Amino acid sequence: MFSITRAAAYAVAFVSLAASVAFADPSMAWDIESAPITSRYIDHASADLDGSALATNPQGPARLAHDVDFSTPVATHAVAAVAGGGIDVAEMGDAQPLHELVDDYAAAEAANEELECLASAVYFESKGEPLEGQLAVAEVILNRVESPKFPDTICGVVKQRNQFSFVRGGRIPSVPTSSSAWRKAVAIAHIAKQDLADSAVSTAMFFHANYVRPSWRGLTRVASVGNHIFYR
What we know:
Keywords: Hydrolase, Signal. This protein is α+β, with helices and mostly antiparallel strands. The protein is built from six helices and five strands, in the order αββαααααβββ. About 30% of the residues are buried.
């Protein structure tokens, strides 16, 4: 009995150590007076990208917090302690690939103003990006809704002054609703709103195109997805 208990204790210690290593991350603390512009269309398109543009971490060079690999879906696991100190690792199954989810929602409509605002932002900011990049843009907008630093509605975030340059005077331009790009944007909006797919930028609050050089101090680079770089 002593050997079994001691083995279980070792198992708990090993899993705890592995978890602490896997999820270690730099500090999330930052404070800014006003949010940086988050559009890929801001007036930096002619600037060259060099190493100085990514020096967002005052304690060292900027680095990716995650290596983004979308070649396979992410499997979800549940790890729970059981009676007697043992560890039960329950396989929850593979997540449905994002492209299949988009196909499932191909005929979905933007049923309300909030979904339409989210889909519009995805369309104008990332319609040329891979699906993962479009999901990442939607994730940033939803993260802002949950932050006290930004408006508490999707449309409020999207239409916030000086944030997305496709918005003019608080108005979102019309979109070709019969286009495949719009259908994908609507599908991504549904998927993001319902939290149906994991995102590599689940903590991101800002992004910019990889060909511009905004001076964003105090932000931590999270990931690069498609042609966008994301920060928190």
